[in-house]
C-alpha cells in the first residue's frame, strides 16, 4: 500500500530526471565507442554511407544529452514540488486535499501575477496485462472517472504554496483493486517560466476516514466557476455560428468543411492512382482505400444538421440535410431554459 509520507510524494517528472540523463550519457558513450572502432576502416575503404552513419551516432548522443539537460533545467526550476495529501490516505466517497510548494530564489520577486493552475484527479483502469500482454496483446488504459479543480496559490516565505481540494466519487474502485491506479496531474502556464506540469500516483483507500483540512477560499472557487462558464459560452459561439432575424434563430453544424472534404477527395485520388500505377497484389487495396476515402469525404462534406427556433411560437425544429435534401428529424416546444445544457463543445 502506497501512502503519502511527511516529506510528500515525488512527481513522475522529477523522479525520472536522473534516469533520463543517465540514458542520454549512455547513448553518447556507446555512439562514440562504435564510431571510434569502425570509423577508421570505413575511412580507409571509403565506405561513405558507413562514414555518414558512424558520424551521426555521436550527434544523436549529443542531441539526447542536450534534451535531457534542458528537461532537467525545466523540471528543477520549480523545486521538487512534493505533494502532501490531506488526509494522508484519502478514501472513496471522501475528499482529496493536496499541498505542494513552488520554490525558487527568484519566484517571490517575479510572480507579479499568479498563473492559472488546474489539478485533475483521474481513476485509471489498466487492462490487457498478464498472459494477454505476454502474448503480444499489449496494455490498454481507460479513464473511468476524472475531475478538474483550480489550484489556489498563496505567497509564503518559501515561495508559492499551492493547494486544491477534489471530491472523490462513491462509484469508483480504490487502489486496492489490482487494475486501478489513481493519479493527480497539475498543469498550467507561468508567464516568466513557461509550461508547468506535475504528475503524482496517489493511493485511495476503500473508505474515507476523515475530511480534508485544506481550506480553499469560497470567492476563489466561485470566480473559477464563473470564468469557466464564460469560457464555455465563448467557445460555443465560435463553434456554432448563429443567424438571427426578427422571427428566427438559426444555426447549422457541418460534419466536415468544404476545404477538408476537398483535401480528402484529393488524398483518396492519390491513393487510387498509386493502386493503378503499381503492379502486384497491393494495387487493388490502394484503389479500394482511395475510393473509400474519397467517398467518405464527399459524404461528410455534404451532411449538415440545421436547427431553427421560432421566437413567437417558441418552437424548435431540427433538420438533417444531405446533398441539399432536408428532412425533419425533430420538432418540439421550448418550455424552459433548463431543456438546454451549455457544454464545453457547444449546446445540447
Q: Key features?
A:
348 residues, alpha+beta, 3 domains, 5-stranded antiparallel sheet, 38% helix
Question: Can you describe what's shown?
Answer:
This protein is of the alpha+beta class and 348 residues long. It folds into three domains: 12-76; 84-216, Sandwich (Immunoglobulin-like), CATH 2.60.40; 236-347, no CATH class. 38% of the residues lie in helices and 30% in strands. The chain is built from eight helices and 15 strands. The chain has helices at residues 12-15, 17-44, 48-76, 107-110, 131-134, 218-239, 258-277, 282-301, and strands at residues 84-86, 95-102, 117-127, 140-150, 152-156, 159-167, 180-190, 194-202, 242-244, 248-254, 303-310, 315-322, 325-333, 342-343, 346-347. A five-stranded antiparallel β-sheet has the order 9-10-11-12-13. Strands 1-2-6-5 form a four-stranded antiparallel β-sheet, with no helix packed on it. Strands 4-3-7-8 form a four-stranded antiparallel β-sheet. A hairpin with a 2-residue loop joins strand 5 (152-156) and strand 6 (159-167). The model is unreliable at 129-137 and 342-348 (pLDDT under 50).
Question: Would you tell me the structural class of the helices and strands?
Answer: alpha+beta
Strand percent estimate:
25-35%
Number of helices: 8
Give the C-level CATH assignment of the largest domain: Mainly Beta
Computed over alpha carbons, the radius of gyration is 28 Å
How far is it from the N-terminal to the C-terminal residue, by CA? 43 Å
Percent helix among the residues? 25-40%
Q: Which ranges are low-confidence, i.e. pLDDT below 50, for 5 or more consecutive residues?
A: 129-137, 342-348
Give the second-level CATH assignment, the architecture of the largest domain: Sandwich
The ordered H/E elements are HHHEEHEHEEEEEHEEHHEEEEE
Global mean pLDDT: 76
Amino acid at each position: 500500500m502506497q501512502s503519502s509520507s511527511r516529506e510528500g510524494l515525488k512527481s513522475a517528472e522529477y523522479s525520472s530526471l536522473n534516469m533520463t540523463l543517465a540514458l542520454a550519457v549512455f547513448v553518447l558513450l556507446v555512439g562514440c565507442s562504435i564510431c571510434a572502432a569502425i570509423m577508421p576502416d570505413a575511412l580507409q575503404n571509403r565506405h561513405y554511407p558507413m562514414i555518414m552513419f558512424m558520424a551521426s551516432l555521436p550527434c544523436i548522443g549529443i542531441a539526447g544529452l542536450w534534451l535531457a539537460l534542458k528537461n532537467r533545467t525545466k523540471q528543477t526550476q520549480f523545486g521538487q514540488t512534493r505533494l502532501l495529501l490531506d488526509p494522508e490516505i484519502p478514501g472513496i466517497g471522501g475528499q482529496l486535499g493536496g499541498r505542494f510548494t513552488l520554490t525558487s530564489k527568484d519566484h517571490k520577486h517575479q510572480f507579479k501575477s499568479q498563473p492559472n493552475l488546474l489539478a485533475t484527479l483521474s481513476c485509471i483502469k489498466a487492462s490487457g496485462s498478464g498472459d494477454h500482454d505476454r502474448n503480444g496483446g499489449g496494455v490498454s488504459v481507460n479513464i473511468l472517472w476524472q475531475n478538474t479543480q483550480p489550484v489556489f496559490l498563496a505567497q509564503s516565505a518559501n515561495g508559492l504554496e499551492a493547494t486544491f481540494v477534489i471530491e472523490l466519487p462513491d462509484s469508483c474502485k480504490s487502489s486496492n483493486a489490482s487494475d486501478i491506479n489513481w493519479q493527480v496531474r497539475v498543469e498550467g502556464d507561468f508567464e516568466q517560466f513557461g509550461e508547468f506540469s506535475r504528475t503524482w500516483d496517489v493511493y485511495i483507500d476503500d473508505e474515507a476516514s476523515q475530511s480534508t483540512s485544506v481550506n480553499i477560499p469560497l470567492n476563489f472557487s466561485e470566480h473559477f466557476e464563473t470564468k469557466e462558464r464564460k469560457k464555455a459560452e465563448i467557445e460555443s459561439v465560435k463553434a456554432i455560428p448563429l443567424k438571427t432575424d426578427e422571427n428566427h434563430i438559426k444555426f447549422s453544424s457541418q460534419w466536415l468543411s468544404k476545404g477538408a472534404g476537398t483535401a480528402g477527395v484529393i488524398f483518396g485520388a492519390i491513393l487510387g492512382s498509386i493502386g493503378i500505377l503499381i503492379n502486384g497484389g497491393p494495387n487493388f487495396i490502394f484503389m479500394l482505400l482511395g475510393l473509400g476515402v474519397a467517398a467518405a469525404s464527399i459524404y461528410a462534406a455534404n451532411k449538415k444538421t440545421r436547427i431553427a427556433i421560432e421566437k413567437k411560437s417558441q418552437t424548435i425544429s431540427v433538420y438533417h440535410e444531405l446533398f441539399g435534401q432536408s428532412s425533419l428529424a425533430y420538432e418540439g416546444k421550448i418550455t424552459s431554459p433548463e431543456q438546454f445544457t451549455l457544454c464545453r463543445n457547444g449546446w445540447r
